[in-house]
Amino acid sequence: MLRRLYYGLKEIDNRMQIERLNKTIKFSNPIFRKEKNIVKPLLIVCGPGFDQESPIAGSLMRIGFARGWAEKFGYAKLISVFELEKELNEHDNPAIFLCVYDYTYINKRVLNKLRSVDSFVWASIHPRKLSEFEKRILIEENAKDLEIWINNYSKIMYSEPKFVWNSACSETMYWYQGWVDDGLNWQIIHPAVDVIRYYPEKNIPKFGEIKIGYVGGYWIEKAQAFDLYFRKIEEIFTPFGYNKWPYKNYGGRLNEQSERQLYSTCGIIPLVTSPAGWLMGEITERYLKGPGCKGFCIADQNIAVREIFTQEEILQAESAEHFHDIVREVFVGNINTEQWRNAGYEAVLKKHLYSHRAEQIMNALTNKK
Predict the structure, then answer these.
(1) 3-state SS string over 10-73?
(2) Are residues 75 and 124 in the same domain?
(3) What are φ and ψ of residue 239, in 5° steps?
(4) Is 164 inside any structural domain?
(5) Which of 152, 161, 309, 350 is 20 to 30 A from 233 via CA?
(6) 13 pLDDT band (50/70/90 cuts)?
(7) Can you give the CATH number for the domain in which 266 is found?
(8) Percent of the chain, pLDDT > 70?
């Protein structure tokens, strides 16, 4: 989820290189503000490759957090990591949203400034567990990420964030416990639904004939899960995404409205992540935006699902085989899909909006329970 936004492993000192990398960070409307008193500004740091118009998780989640914070506390701004020092000087007592990759580009002077503000860090598996994780998930494309996590560990510790967080679950704390052992406050903060982008909007003429629809990227590691869940039902499965799927019904890309309409309309929205996601117990936006559009969803075997939805709020398969069984039951009319659409949607409105996450972050910063 965090990857694919950053590149470069060494601290950048050369001004020309900084300018070149800074130009790869693209904002269209970086300031989010409500007509109310600003309780506390939030600065959300974005690194090389960030594009506010790109529909990938790393962009959409930051925008969601910004909107949720602005709704609750008045003001949020997306900023370039290369302009972090300037923004710190221009804002009064801000909260700072960082991720582990940002530290690649943060020098000692800025690290010292971070020690005196309310920063929090989107962290990854603790470095002491990386060797074991790498053995369990043998994917070459992860090697670069692992090196960044290791290289930036000392910088994170030196900056003394108020807390570090990830969207994992309590049952997979094994991978993250090192942050707690090292004296940092650990928080589980899940993605949420951005109600400006995701809400019920049916389009039966366009998507009503699709039995099973999926929107997302396709790559080698995720393919292991996709083939387990989808290859057997390929005839009734229609994937969409920004890179081509090796499935016969691949439907190309969808714009923002069409994605929302697909979730709201088609027969089944499968909530399937990757083997790495299963191992980490990671909740991605996928598990929330489908229900947020009142889609009929079936979640995969991810053990973290039951930490965000009860058994009455969303259906969950215990395995790929169980998923196929549920699909068969749906299409012979043995499952009340409308009831499940309503239950998932109501759960999202009650506890899974980005305004809820803003309150959670503020409570963590102020040590409120």
Answers:
(1) CCCCCHHHHHHHHCCCECCCCEEECCCCCCCCEEEEECCCCECCCCCHHHHHHHHHHHHHHHHH
(2) yes
(3) -90, 150
(4) yes
(5) 309
(6) low
(7) 3.40.50.2000
(8) 94
Paired tokens of 195: 């109600």
Cβ pair 210, 221 in contact under 8 A? no
Range of the domain at 24: 15-190+354-365
Per DSSP, 180 falls in state: H
What Å distances lie between residue 201 and 27, 60, 198, 238, 314, CA to CA? Answer: 27, 19, 9, 19, 20
SS3 assignment, position 127: helix
Q: Are 315 and 340 spatial neighbours (Cβ–Cβ below 8 Å)?
A: yes
- Tokens 């400006």, residue located: 196
pLDDT of residue 224: 87
With beta carbons less than 8 A apart as the criterion, state whether 241 and 286 touch.
no
Question: Nearest Cα to 166, choosing from 99, 101, 102, 104?
Answer: 99
- Provide the number of structural domains found in the chain: 2
- CB neighbour list of residue 274: distance below 8 Å, 6 or more residues apart: 221, 222, 224, 225
Q: Which of 7, 5, 82, 20 is nearest to 51 (CA)?
A: 5
CB 268 within 8 A of CB 212: yes
Entry pTM: 0.93
C-beta of residue 63 within 8 angstroms of C-beta of residue 112: no
Q: How far is CA 235 from the centre of its chain?
A: 30
Q: What is the DSSP string of 276-302?
A: HHHHHTPPPTHHHHHHHTT--EEE-S-
Beta-strand pair 42-46/31-33: unpaired
* Separation CA 171–CA 154 (nearest Å): 26
